[in-house]
Design brief:
With 225 residues, the chain is an alpha+beta fold. It has a single domain, classed as Cyclic Phosphodiesterase, Chain: A (Alpha-Beta Complex), CATH 3.90.1140.10. It has eight helices and nine strands. Strands 2-1-8-9 form a four-stranded antiparallel sheet. A three-stranded antiparallel sheet has the order 4-5-6, with helices on one face. A hairpin with a 2-residue loop joins strand 4 and strand 5. The chain starts with a strand and ends with a strand. It comes from Undibacterium umbellatum. This is DUF1045 domain-containing protein. InterPro entries: DUF1045.
């Protein structure tokens, strides 16, 4: 069944660069040539960004969900338009490439209060669109390592990394083992994503996965105000 997700997907140069880094433009569906990294085989680079590429260049606001009974994609579009009219831009002055566990991600620096509040507003405001998880899916997710608080959040919101557990990030790689390959990717990502313009949160992007395991596609960006 189709799943929807509310993401932040940067536009302009950030989107172009991010899509090239992953090797796919989630808006057009086009496969792209990844930037060459010195000392790293292109096939290895492609493999180490496989899962990140499937989801597209994005930061999660509300994790993928199926629509609740009685609600349609048109209803979700309308709600997003109305919600985004009330939002203000949030500027991230100096995003940095950082490690998040065993994968690389772009993370904000400085005060993140407004960003965190906005992200949780997305989670809560649109939660009535989310169909409850099946018992099988809930059991599968509960098998993953998590704290008691994360398990509570999973039960309440369908995702364990929200509220105070939320960490805004744009995923750049899959899980990496420590070593020369990881070091090469890290150094290359720092250089590649050092851009003069800030990263501006100015819209919510609606993504969709048409069937399990399919690539996520960017359907539309809903601009603020």
């Amino acid at each position: 069944m189709t799943r929807y997700a509310l993401y932040f997907a940067p536009d302009a140069e950030w989107w172009r660069r991010g899509s090239l880094w992953l090797g796919r433009d989630a808006a057009s569906g086009q496969q792209l040539p990844q930037p060459a990294i010195t000392g790293l085989d292109a096939d290895v680079q492609w493999q180490l960004t496989r899962d990140a590429r499937r989801y597209g260049f994005h930061a999660t606001l509300k994790a993928p969900f199926q629509l609740a009974d009685g609600l349609t994609e048109a209803n979700l579009h309308q709600a997003l338009q109305e919600f985004c009219k009330e939002q203000n831009n949030i500027q991230i002055h100096a995003p940095e490439v950082q490690w998040m566990g065993k994968f690389l991600a772009m993370r904000p620096t400085g005060d993140q209060t407004a960003l965190n509040e906005f992200a949780f507003a997305c989670v809560s405001h649109f939660d009535h669109f989310r169909a409850p998880m099946s018992r099988a899916e809930l059991a599968r997710r509960q098998q993953m390592p998590s704290s008691p608080r994360q398990n509570d959040l999973l039960l309440e919101w369908g995702y364990p990394y929200t509220a105070e557990e939320f960490r805004f990030h744009i995923t750049l790689t899959d899980r990496l083992d420590a070593g020369a390959v990881a070091d090469s990717l890290h150094a290359a990502a720092i250089q590649y994503f050092t851009l003069p313009e800030p990263l501006i949160i100015n819209s919510i992007a609606l993504f969709t996965e048409h069937q399990a395991g399919a690539d996520f596609e960017l359907l539309e960006r809903f601009s603020f105000r």
